[in-house]
Amino acid sequence: MPPSFSPEELERYDRQLRIDGFGLEAQGKLKEACVAVVGLGALGCLSALSLALAGVGELILIDRDRVELSNLNRQVLYRQADVGKPKAPLAAERLRSANPYVRTRGLEVELDEHNALELLEGADVVVDGLDNWRTRLAVNDACVELDIPFVHAGVRSFYGQIMTIVPGQGPCLRCVIRATLPEEENIPVLGATPMALASLEALEAIKLITGLGEPLVGRLFVFDGLRMRVEVLTVARNPRCPACGRLG
Fold first, then answer.
1. Which of 161, 163, 162, 128 is nearest to 142 (CA)?
2. Contacts of residue 123, Cβ cutoff 8 Å, sequence gap at least 6
């Protein structure tokens, strides 16, 4: 049976329910969905908030870090008084406050290649809130193994990129990243840049859940906020990809 909605939920989601082709069917799919957000920095905070406000039924929030003062120019779920506190439980609490109809689980743990399958199993979509390639690729590999769509985004300065991976339907992240990339600590970033990309991540996740629209499968969306330009690059699957090549 499709999920039911209280009068308060119907009023809360009224504006998106009015969208042509959306309605109660799409809202019901959101309510039944589980999204894992890996990394609760700038990308993760705003994408998780957008998904909670849209009515995604369950959010799994994964991050081992604690709030730092330098986070506060862009990580919208945290406040000055939160400095030193763990991000995951704080984010879970703030999202429940933003929408009491959403279930949240904050996992104060570091995801890696050893626990990624266990942490992500059961999610309908995984969203990239990370700031390093090693963990992103571990998430990518687990999502390919579990057949879970993965919405990737990355930002630096005024620039960002986003691509959606649907295993077996298009390239995965390893098809694009074929060499070991150097990691960068304290990545320079203007807060508005990840906010823009995180909103697009949430939009991609909502489209995947509801079946509406055309996700960025096989397309890399590149954003230049300094010149306000975008470019969409076509990306092909690598038949020899160590992660998804076996899918044919």
1. 128
2. 34, 35, 36, 60, 148
**In angstroms, rounded to a whole number, what is the distance separating the alpha carbons of residues 212 and 18?**
15
A 10 A CB-CB count for 100 gives 11
Q: What does the pLDDT look like over 149-202, one tens digit per residue?
A: 999 999 999 999 999 999 999 999 999 987 777 788 889 999 999 999 999 999
Q: Locate the domains of the chain by residue range.
A: 33-247
CATH number of this structure's domain 33-247: 3.40.50.720
DSSP H/E element including 152? strand 150-156
Average pLDDT rounded to a whole number, residues 65-78: 97
Q: Judging by beta carbons within 10 Å of its beta carbon (0-12, 13-18, 19+), is residue 125 exposed, middle or buried?
A: buried
CA 15/CA 12 separation, integer angstroms: 8
Determine the Cα–Cα distance for residues 181 and 216; give it in Å rounded to an integer: 23
pLDDT one-digit tens code per residue, 208-225: 999 999 999 999 999 999
